[in-house]
Amino acid sequence: SLAYTPGVAVPCLEIKKNKADVWKYTNRSNTVAVVSDGTAVLGLGNIGPEAGMPVMEGKAVLFKTFADIDAIPFCLGSVHGADGRTDADKLIEAVKPLEPSFGGINLEDIGAPACFKVEQTLKKAMGIPVFHDDQHGTAIISLAGILNALKLVGKKIEECRFVMNGAGAAGIACAEYYISAGAKRENFLLCDSKGVISKSRTDLNPEKARFAQETDCRTLADAIKGADVFMGVSVAKALTREMVASMAPGAVVFAMANPEPEIFPDEALAAGAAVVGTGRSDYPNQVNNVLGFPYIFRGALDVRATKINEEMKLAAAHALAELTRQPVPTMVLRAYGVEKLELGRTYLPKPLDPRLLCTVAPAVAKAAVESGVAKQPIADWDTYAESLRKRYQE
């Protein structure tokens, strides 16, 4: 009677009087909807919403395990055009009505270019955080790795020349994000399946057109000569040893295609790369989105942020980069069966590190407060940090 009728009528009537009380009397403040239409699942492509469900269920498990967030997977049908690809307007109209039930929306595995319109429109239309993890999660984690890699090789991000192979959702988002962190737009060359994105091309969507350069380069092999950083979110074996060898001294190579990267780490190192990252878990320096999205949403939910903005994303990346420079606790070393982990060519933060929750979430929450998007600012940050530690232990 207390959990349902007649007791439940009391909070119902309170919320009717003041809709904001839904955050006080329900679990909305600890919930995220994981939404996909199955059009760009992992490296498997457009396999449909049913086949995409295991990924969304797995994502929900990670939300709960690492940040104690209750996440519900939604794999939506009837949101596709006749060609089987995302109809952005249909997907937008399907997701908007979810707002009263959730504290945030995590968009997942939605094909480009529709994913750009979906996220941008929903961010404007909804009063809760909307976050496309394939774009921004990848960008945040990879930036943390690149910042530390550049520190190791003694280079500054604003002076580096970048080559991005793959100009879909992840590639475009990563490039834009690195620019917000200090890289120069004119120092980027992007490549898609048709070659270098240059001003001579007439087949570019608006997102790609922002990166079109006046250049004689036409292929990845042309573009990568003398580059400082290669970032791959494309296809297996796209990068050769010869291409890596043609890069600038102290080259950073993040080959992120999964399950088979653009080049395997041992090959890239043998060709002269100084620091190598990958999307795989069986090599050092895995760039894994689980280092970001649980803690980003935890911080956003805890201050009732209305959005996840650039300030919050940059705060997450810098918190991750800084954590990698700190001594690693013995329990983390034991979890991975190693005797030592420290900032170097083979170490980004590891997912099984309890410090992530107490490091990234507060950084994101503080950035939300300072940038004016928090509806429930935190008064005592020490108490908040202690509450996060308890969540992890429980």
Task: Explain what you see.
- By secondary structure, the chain is α/β, with parallel strands linked by helices.
- It is 42% helix and 11% strand.
- The chain contains 16 helices and 10 strands.
- The two termini are 28 Å apart.
Whole-number radius of gyration? 21 Å
What percentage of amino acids are in beta strands?
5-15%
Name the shape in a single word: globular
Major beta sheet, strand line-up:
7-6-5-8-9-10
Q: Kindly report the average pLDDT value.
A: 94
- Residues in helices, as a percent range: 40-55%
Distance between the termini: 28 Å
Structural class: alpha/beta
Query: How would a textbook summarize the main sheet?
Result: 6 strands, mixed
| E-strand count | 10
In DSSP terms (H or I, runs of 4 or more residues), the helix count works out at 16
SSE sequence, one letter per element: HHEHEHEHEHEHEEHHEHEHEHHHHH
Unreliable stretches, pLDDT < 50, 5 or more residues? none
